[in-house]
Amino acid sequence: MLTGKKGLIIGLANENSIAFGCAKILKQQGAELILTHRSEKSYKQARFLANELSADLYQCDVTNQENIKQLFPYIKKKWQTLDFVIHSLAFAKPRELQGRLVDTSSQAFLQAMDISCHSFLRIAQQAESLMPNGGSLISMSYLGAQKVMKNYNMMGPIKAALEASIKYLAVELAEKNIRVYGISPGLMPTRAATGIKNLDQLLAATTRKSPMQRIINQEEVGALASFLVSDFASGMTGQTLFVDGGYNLIN
User: Could you tell me the EC number(s) of this protein (predicted)?
Assistant: First the structure.
């Protein structure tokens, strides 16, 4: 389905990350991939996972604008053009995430907004010039962007900003045939979720309440991403789509 497609996946952390789940499925479908990791500290694990998928690996800290600006010339030199980008990262200081929204410091809020939302805009800006024939941009959201979710606190407004940004980008880039999507996975035990207070209890509650009575996995997120970056989704843009076993229907 994706033979000949070339894509960038940002946010590889470990084998339980959504980025890796997406990468596995996209690779199975024939895509060529470049994966990014954040720092030298994460290199060894990221290198192992990239090798498993025969994918290129590039270090990119999205808080460093120079890192982003250097990444895209590397992609252009390797491929000339780019078909898709999957932005799969978020950050909030655990102490701030576990406290009340009203008590959030401006520094922590702005840092979380910069990494979790505005970095997607910076990536989109750079990717645009490498998509002369169109392409797809995807970022990861969560139900807490649309409904108040227990213990999600400060990240709710930030993911809401991300989902709004997806809509605006979709309209702005439509004339260039660049499609923009959000994927909203259900709660799962990823590295990004470890900062959520009482995660184990929330996972158990999600299983009980979900119509499908289970936690979804990273590969199921990857399956949706695979469809969205394929030509089969050519008539869609601007939506945030749920992969949560139907949990959003009953919460």
Answer: 1.3.1.9
Q: Which tens digit of pLDDT belongs to each residue from 59-106?
A: 999 999 999 999 999 999 999 999 999 999 999 888 888 889 999 999
Domain limits, the chain = 6-243
d(C-alpha 39, C-alpha 245), whole Å: 34
**36 touches 10 (CB < 8 A):** yes
Question: Considering the domain 6-243 in this protein, what is its CATH number?
Answer: 3.40.50.720
Just list the catalytic residues.
Answer: 142, 152
Of the candidates 128, 190, 137, the one whose C-alpha atom is nearest the C-alpha of residue 166 is 137
Among 88, 59, 41, which residue's Cα sits nearest to residue 50? Answer: 59
Q: Comparing C-alpha atoms, which of 21, 10, 34 is closest to residue 186?
A: 21
The Cα angle at residue 16 between residues 10 and 17, in degrees rounded to 5: 20
**Distance separating alpha carbons of residues 181 and 138, to the nearest angstrom:** 5
Degrees, nearest 5: CA angle 185-186-190: 85
Q: Which residues contact 165 (CB under 8 A, 6 or more apart)?
A: 117, 120, 121
